[in-house]
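Hi there,

I know you've been waiting on this one. I reran it after we fixed the sequence typo, so this is the corrected version. Both the input and the resulting structure follow.
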Amino acid sequence: MIARPFGSTGREVPVIGQGTWNVPVRGERADEAKRALRRGIELGMVHVDTAEMYGDGAAERLLGEAIRDLPREQLFLASKVLPSNARYDATIRACEGSLRRIGVDYLDCYLLHWRGGTPLGETMRALEQLVRDGKIRALGVSNFDVDDLE
């Protein structure tokens, strides 16, 4: 699997990863989804993307079940905070909720899912605090266009 450096983290991350949006979270289909995630990891797709909004947290729980017995350091896990949770305190709580649901001590990357009404600086301060606290290794944004980034 081809890997590239992930920003300034120094971590090499496979260019192909797995996502958990719309993953089945109940019954036999959920078991099938967990097996598919595991198989992808076996094949080198160790970058797994999820979000608190996917299945209202159920996708994060399913991911946690799928990776429970795997060495954490071999995985690159990313999750996202909703704009409705982008205030400073809410971002901290949302991240802690994601960590609990996945069952890990840290996320490799935590992103603002899309821009909302909260000033971006407030969200960034929370994300920077999460880095200092060791709860996330990298921060970023998702679904931003060029105007948002400027």
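Quick highlight: The chain has one domain: 3-149.

Best,
R. S.
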